[in-house]
Amino acid sequence: MTAHDLAASPDRLSARFAACRAEGRAALVTFVTAGDPDAATSAAILAALPAAGADIIELGMPFTDPMADGPAIQAGNLRALGEGMRLRDLIAMVAAFRKADTTTPIVLMGYFNPILAYGCARFATDARAAGIDGVIVVDLPPEEADELLPDLGASGMHLIRLATPTTDTARLPRVLEGASGFLYYVAVAGVTGANAATAGDIAAAVARLKAATDLPIAVGFGVRTPEQAGAIAAHADAVVVGSAIVDIIGAGAAARVNDIPARVAAFVAGLAAAVRNRQSYAA
Amino acid sequence: MNAAVPPASLRAGPDANGHFGAFGGRYVAETLMPLILDLDAHYRAAKADPAFKAEFDDLLTHYVGRPSPLYFAARLTEELGGAKIYLKRDELNHTGAHKINNCIGQILLARRMGKTRIIAETGAGQHGVATATVAARFGLPCVIYMGARDIARQAPNVFRMKLLGAEVRAVESGSRTLKDAMNEALRDWVTNVHDTFYIIGTAAGPHPYPELVRDFQSVIGTEARAQILDREGRLPDLLVAAIGGGSNAIGLFHPFLDDASVRMVGVEASGHGLDTDAHAASLAGGRPGVLHGNKTMLLQDEDGQITEAHSISAGLDYPGIGPEHAWLHSIGRVEYQSATDAEALEAFKLLCRVEGIIPALEPSHALAAIMRMAPTMAGDQLIVANLCGRGDKDIFTVAEALGVAL
């Protein structure tokens, strides 16, 4: 799909990045797994995220075999699957969210098999109709993406591409081919929830990506604290925090507390404050 | 999905992107893609290098003990009363199974790429033992991921791996079997891409693994083809091999794929039965999907969640199958049958009794299919079955199934 096609339909992602840029700051992207720890609590968490300061929501599609995820998100996937969360339930959850919030972008993240089982064309149609803006498919590299990209393009959804420390300059153009929405930089070679990269490494990596694309750069993997989020916000267009939030959900579920959405919101507010206190690299 | 167009030779696949018809490919995280592409380039170079083949062949001869015999099982043939049955004795290899063929090839590739650390997944432990063996032989540190449930049922192999200097890491996630061990190995690999080589144990995973594992295992079929021509002066009528991921079967079948007169039967594990939830027959009971780097036939629910496989044989207990088998199944070149836990046990006992060979539970599934087919064939017809592993490792499982306290 072309930039023109996207411009013709309401594009929450570009509007949100533009708004953050106008405020001279990076965007905060928060990851939670749909249905974790159960459908009702997950919907309440989703509803609480924008007010807590999440600019973009990354919503995990549960899968039995999350090969690129560390223990925190593996556990979140299993909690959601244990409660019966399916892709159609996730889509319905976003449709319900959209009744109250028409502006916060929602990007799905997960693995290809549940999409394949749902049907690529049907997925693109239903997800877009529910108000989903894009999708990150961890195990669908550019080499295999033609199976999904045309359907996403036809419905006006972004296929968010991933760049990593191993994506060298020779390969980068392949990754950027057909990329839209933003570019997700995986800051460390590893699984989610791993150790953090240094701010210096991230600054250098973002500069290298900026030289190759005009897409906003979001940085994730290993970002656990407001301090880390703030440091990365100084260099990137967006900061992604996932496992640290999922850990709060997991701990709350294990302790059977009933205020998990409030606990998540309090943590996200801290992240948002840290991100807002830093001037973004792009501004 | 588009129907596959068979190339002129059925042995020509995969294409440059690793596709066998609608199956195969490279479905991995971006962190691994550059490494996968690098592995592919190194494998192309190795394949074209006579020195690589010479070293591989030398190790197979003097370290593994190849060629393995093609043995005419006269008493089994007499017992079943039909076709003449030959057994390809890959259970006589060093380490007791066909797995070592592939491990030799991959560790030579690892050394060629300058990698200094080896990881692998294992189900029954045979691939773990073979990997630990070659890691010791080449002096490289080695970590084996093994499902906690498999560790409990394969204690002798766990001890073997430790004796060989490997670190065995128990995998407690998911169903705690082979698929979860593979997830964990992939997580290790993505974290240690700079120095680590992942020795995948079956003809599955992202391209070029299904191709290179097949190529290394094809020594089985290449030898068997020459041996049967030497013994009988003609090609066999039927090849039979058990299928988990399918590396021993593709190794036997591949050199015969263009021989139209040779019928081939792969035997999946149907556990408690195909009409139950407890089986490992991904062709008979699965649908196309993507897992562990390739598109193939998978046991999954309607939402695309992977379901647990079951087989009495830990080595067949996997919800997928190599992509080349999925393709050969889709075009009908290879026929796929199944055998239950109970049928495999009967075949296991039969081979012990009439041939003095204790087979592994994996090839016991192939023998179970032969017990059905051989009696229906003429006395001058020829069957070659791959006896891909010996059964010492399985005696505890078999004793339990037979209600014997050791």
Protein architecture, described:
The complex is a heterodimer of chains A (283) and B (406). A nine-stranded parallel sheet of chain A has the order 5-4-3-2-1-9-8-7-6. In chain A, 47% of the residues lie in helices and 13% in strands. Chain A is α/β, with parallel strands linked by helices. Residues 1-8 of chain A have low confidence and may be disordered. Chain A has helices at 3-8, 12-22, 39-52, 71-82, 87-98, 112-118, 120-129, 149-155, 172-176, 199-210, 226-233, 243-254, 260-276, and strands at 27-33, 56-60, 106-110, 134-137, 158-159, 161-163, 183-186, 217-220, 238-241. Chain A is built from 13 helices and nine strands. Chain B is of the alpha/beta class. The termini of chain B are far apart. The mean pLDDT of chain B is 95. The chains are: A alpha/beta (283), B alpha/beta (406). The interface between A and B is large, with 42 and 39 residues.
Sequence stretches where pLDDT stays below 50 over 5 or more residues of chain B: none
Spans of chain A with pLDDT under 50 lasting ≥5 residues? 1-8
Quaternary class:
heterodimer
- Molecular shape of chain B: globular
Largest interface: A-B, 42 and 39 residues
* Strand count of chain A: 9
Query: Percent of residues of chain B in helical segments?
Result: 40-55%
- Give me the number of helical elements of chain A: 13
Secondary-structure element order of chain B, N to C: EEHHEHEHEHEHHEHEHHEHEHEEHEHHEH
At CATH level 2, the architecture of chain A is Alpha-Beta Barrel
**What distance separates the N and C termini of chain B?**
51 Å
CATH superfamily of chain A: Aldolase class I
Distance between the termini of chain A: 27 Å
Mean pLDDT value of chain B: 95
Shape of chain A: globular
Strand order of the largest sheet of chain A: 5-4-3-2-1-9-8-7-6
What name does the CATH topology of chain A carry? TIM Barrel
